[in-house]
Amino acid sequence: MNEKIKILVVDDEKVIRDGCSRVLSGKGYDVITAENGQAALDVLAKEPLDIILLDLKMPVMSGEEVLEITGEKYPDIPVIIITGHGTVDTAVECMKKGAYDFITKPFQIDQFLLIITRAAEKRNLEQKARQFEQENIRNLYDLNLEKSRLKTIINYMGNGVMVTNRNLEVVLHNPALMRLMEISEEVENPAPISTIIHDESLINTLKQIQGGESSENESISQEINAGANVLRAISAPALGPDSSVVGTVTVIEDITAFKQLDQMKTDFVNMVAHELRSPLSAIKQQNHVLLEGLCGPLGEKQHEFVSRGSNRIDSLLELINDLLDVAKIEAGKYVQRLVPTDIGKVIEETIALMDSKAKEKGIDLSFSFKNLKPVQADPKNIEEIFNNLISNAINYSPEGGKVTVTAQGQGEYMEIRVEDTGVGISPEELPKIFDKFYRVKHPKTRQVIGTGLGLAIVKGIVDAHHGTIDVESVVDKGTTFRILFPVMA
Ligand SMILES: Nc1ncnc2c1ncn2[C@@H]1O[C@H](COP(=O)(O)OP(=O)(O)OP(=O)(O)O)[C@@H](O)[C@H]1O
Ligand SMILES: [Mg+2]
Q1: Residues near 436 by beta carbon (within 8 Å), at least 6 away in sequence
Q2: What is the pLDDT of residues 295-338, one digit of tens each?
Q3: Is 458 in the pocket of ligand 1 (CB under 6 A)?
Q4: Which of 161, 183, 272, 278 is surrounded by the fewest CB atoms within 10 Å?
């Protein structure tokens, strides 16, 4: 018993009241007494009680009357009827009217206590059941509140939300999703995925997640188009209690404005680069005329300054050309002329041009070919790839290093590796080096001048030729770039 059970003893005989009080208090119960029915009702009105011991024959108000009233007002309190031998029938009658039990005078203490204990247990169990029920109601209420909050949040979110079940049917979607997907008619859940999502690549991603092909904590981000909208969809598995995949969750964000802004920025950079190229080329030409002495001889100092200026113009033109290359790659207009190309020859030519630069740094630059096969490519582009990879290998290697270029036919592919013994790239930096303008900050390569466009161009060219490029690197040991090009059928 967590709390003391309170018992009300109602009897007009003082001996009984006192006797009950003594015995029950001795057993740890709280006892209150009343000498007649009315007094008992007064007590009940004032404080909560657990058990009533009720004599039937009393002045003022009989036990039966009291039982009727308590039965109505306090149906949960068990009432035990106290009765003399002659009134057992009446006691039985009372039980039919709702009394819990009865006990005959004079009391057998053991029996008396047994009845009280049982009533107390009943009272306790009932109270617990009631508590439990109330808690249940409260939990249900909280759950519903939580659900309705969540529903409100999801419904008013600016981002689209979609949840699918095991059969890849949509079981939850919000108004933002429908707006972003440009669907105006109502869709009832569960709905086949194709009623809402028309982008095959997203459906494939969801199938892949559903099939457990992506890892649990991984989300897959992809760009999709829906009407005039450019959207980013981030999808992840929905996991059941046993961590199995029970569906998918996708959040969809509108990135149309960012895309437009990005396009404006690119257009602007291209326009500026383009406009700068002609005057810079003209200045370069004029400097050349000056340096060649075609406008009269230059003094030593004059020659030095003009040629320094020319070098600066060269690097500016290089930057501008890189920017324009990136723009062309992004517009898909870079690879123009696909012809059978001998990669070995392009590598040899590029290395010949790089050799003096390598020698300056005491770098051993070598190549080897095996099983060469022609690839369908634009030779100018391929040259650009090796220009960038080999110059990087030289630039980011300390003096006395080694750079090796190998090309090898491997079934349907040509595998080309550019290996160096340079400073290496840390694992955190590796995924970023193909980004435009990304350069690793490294104390040993701070003096290398560059714009961070080389590898972006390389990646763009490789992609345009349906090839792949990957990179492995160990800091302070060296880096290997590996390209696979499909060979000609
Ligand atoms: N072989 C390499 N070894 C170590 N770090 C490298 C290597 N190649 C590239 N990197 C790192 O990756 C970055 C990006 O290379 P990327 O060629 O794109 O640009 P860049 O060489 O800095 O400039 P540029 O546009 O003139 O080529 C470099 O700044 C360098 O930090
Ligand atoms: Mg570079």
Answers
A1: 326, 452, 453, 456
A2: 999 999 999 999 999 999 999 998 899 888 888 888 777 777 88
A3: no
A4: 278
Confidence of residue 106 (pLDDT cuts 50, 70, 90): confident
What DSSP line would sit under 115-180, residue for residue? HHHHHHHHHHHHHHHHHHHHHHHHHHHHHHHHHHHHHHHHHH-SSEEEEE-TTSEEEEE-HHHHHH
Cα 398–Cα 403–Cα 409 angle in degrees, nearest 5: 160
Dihedrals φ, ψ of 416, to 5°? -120, 130
Of 446, 482, 477, which is closest to residue 462 (Cα–Cα)?
482
What is the share, in percent, of the chain residues with pLDDT greater than 90? 74
Q: How far apart are CA 118 and CA 104, in angstroms?
A: 16
Amino acid at 4: K
Joined tokens for residue 307 = 């040629």
Closest CA to 83 of 59, 115, 55, 116: 55
3-state helix, strand, coil in the chain (%, to 5): 50, 25, 30
Please tell me the predicted confidence (pLDDT) of residue 1.
44
User: Which ligand 1 atom is the nearest neighbour of the CA of 438?
Assistant: 14
pLDDT per residue over 45-89, tens digit each? 999 999 999 998 888 788 889 999 999 999 989 999 988 766 778
| Shortest-distance Cα residue to atom 19 of ligand 1 | 452
CA of 284 from ligand 2 middle (Å) equals 24
- In 331-466, which ranges are continuous DSSP H helix? 343-360, 379-395, 454-464
Distance in Å, CA 73 to ligand 1 centroid: 88
Which residue, by CA, sits nearest to atom 31 of ligand 1? 440
Question: pLDDT-based confidence at 215, cuts 50/70/90?
Answer: low
Cβ of 55: how many Cβ atoms within 10 Å?
A: 25
CA distance 244 to 210: 10
Q: Which of 392, 458, 461, 477 should be mutated for ligand 1, with most atoms under 8 A from CB?
A: 392
One-letter amino acid at 218 equals E
Q: Quick check: 359 and 386 in contact, CB under 8 A? A: no
